Amino acid sequence: MDFHYQELSAQKMEEIIKQVSQKYLTREASLHIEEKGVSNFVTEADKAIEKGIKEELSRLYPWIQFLGEEGEDQNVDFSGAVWILDPIDGTANFIHDLRHSCLSLALAINKEVVFGIIYHYYTGECFYAKKGMGAYLNGSPIHVSSVKELKYSLASFGTSPYYKEEAEGICDNLKKVYLLCEDIRRFGSAALELSYVACGRIDLYLEKGLKPWDYAAAIILIQEAGGTITDYQGHPIDVSKPCDILAGNGVVEKKLLEAITL
Ligand code: IPD
Questions:
Q1: Does domain 5-141 have CATH number 3.20.20.100?
Q2: 21 in contact with ligand 1, CB cutoff 6 A
């Protein structure tokens, strides 16, 4: 198949996302909830948006595999091309009408993320990046922050709500980061928080045990915006697996790893 990811249009993807989501992202749909596990919920909207996006992508790119947060079949061959979708990142926010949730869609080829788009459902902010072609917010180039010191860094910390049994380690890390940085934020959507690192609103983001659909699109966004995104040891991420994620502006996350062990 003669497919060049360079030709993917972020504008076209944004149109598809808006078209599909506006039908389903309703207050009514947010009230039809199933419990998947501890603090882990899915709404009718998550399922309907995933189905709608999957159908549209399969129609346009039938040779690309699909991995979605809500899909039953999670067996894909990562040596080929795979769409990785989180239909609503920030489902808890959506359920509570906190109006801070997004869709996150990535394209990985042979485990390398080459395209990513993150669409904030409530502000209309659309973050996207393609390998070697820069990172953008609503058409304007974005860049990570220029903060050089941890003490002037604003860090966003994901609390890994599904792993309550690891509360002690997670809270220890929170305390260590809090003591070293200017302050901590917790917004409830990993994909948006990672987008905020890419555009320089925050300087650092970390969360234990994120799933590929939470972080995949942000890998290319942060890399193209001049930052780094790794695991808690500073190693590259394997996008086919859950991972502890540390992202930053290329300077402060390295200083964090020199100062503490996560
Ligand atoms: C969750 C959100 C949340 C993070 C969780 C994620 P979901 O994604 O990103 O902020 O703390 O780890 O799983 O379930 O809303 O798609």
A1: no
A2: no
